[in-house]
Design brief:
Helices cover 31% and strands 14% of the residues. The protein has a seven-stranded mixed β-sheet, with helices on both faces.
Length: 272
């Protein structure tokens, strides 16, 4: 269903739930909604088909996260546990929590919910460990919280959503100390625009569509030395209804993201 090496993981309990790398430098990335894997015990309760689940996931964002020197990636779908929501909301138990979709054909057993929430706790324990190690080395860290969002919800043949309200890249800074981290935010957005896409500037705006959610809030509440940029790529790099990616556009967006890295490091140096 997907190209560029994006693997639909086997829906069983043997999938490794977390993958990470700790490298050099103060840049860190994650793509918490990239995965499609679902553990076997949940399959009898799942009411959604493969394509329905895939539409609300963020394929290919893991490719971009791996461009950073340090990264953390989960191996399970947001339909198993949503890592960008607090624990009380992380398992979708009602359609209002999942874009109006009925995720489960009957209520999940309490034990299954607990096992899903254990993955949530495991992810945040690992995130804490990696950030503590990076902050001990560098004092300040930029976290790129990478996502993608749909803009053709009316159907594959319907017009896309109004571009004035749907930038190609939305940078969420809702929980950030914006005044302190202004050099980082502004350098990041300027470098993305300047790199461009297909010979033109990228449409990069702040807090238009999204402001960042639980991951950014969690990090900012615990680590004053961390600046989380919640980066939402509009799905111009794929067909959001089939899941098929456009490799040249995915590569160009990855190059644009990587082109920001040196500027982010420079901007960190002037942050008090």
């Amino acid at each position: 269903m997907r190209s560029l090496g994006y693997t639909v993981e086997a829906m069983n309990a043997t999938v490794v739930p977390l993958h990470w790398r700790l490298g050099a430098g103060p840049l860190f990335a994650t793509a918490i909604h990239h995965a499609h894997g679902l553990r076997a015990e949940l399959r009898p309760w799942m009411a959604l088909g493969e394509c329905e689940r895939a539409r609300e996931e963020d394929p290919y964002t893991d490719h971009w996260a791996r461009l950073a020197p340090s990264w953390l990636l989960p191996g399970r779908s947001r339909f198993e546990v949503d890592l960008n929501r607090p624990p009380r909301e992380a398992v979708y138990t009602h359609p209002d929590m999942a874009w109006g979709q009925r995720v489960w054909n009957r209520p999940l057993p309490a034990a299954a919910v607990r096992r899903s929430l254990a993955l949530h706790a495991q992810f945040y324990a690992r995130l804490r460990d990696l950030l503590e190690r990076l902050l001990a080395r560098h004092g300040k860290v930029v976290v790129l919280d990478l996502h993608a969002y749909n803009h053709r919800r009316e159907g594959p043949w319907a017009p896309p959503a109004d571009p004035t309200q749907n930038p190609e890249i939305n940078v969420g800074t809702g929980s950030l100390d914006r005044a302190r981290w202004a050099p980082v935010v502004e350098r990041f957005m300027a470098d993305l625009r300047d790199h461009g896409l297909g010979g033109r500037p990228l449409d990069v705006r702040e807090n238009v569509k999204f402001r960042g959610r639980y991951l950014a809030q969690w990090v900012h509440a615990r680590f004053p030395g961390a600046c989380v940029l919640a980066v939402e790529f509009k799905k111009i790099f794929m067909d959001e209804w089939t899941g098929i990616g456009d490799p040249p556009t995915i590569d160009q967006l990855g190059c644009a993201l990587r082109a920001t890295f040196s500027g982010l490091v420079e901007a960190l140096e002037v942050v008090p």
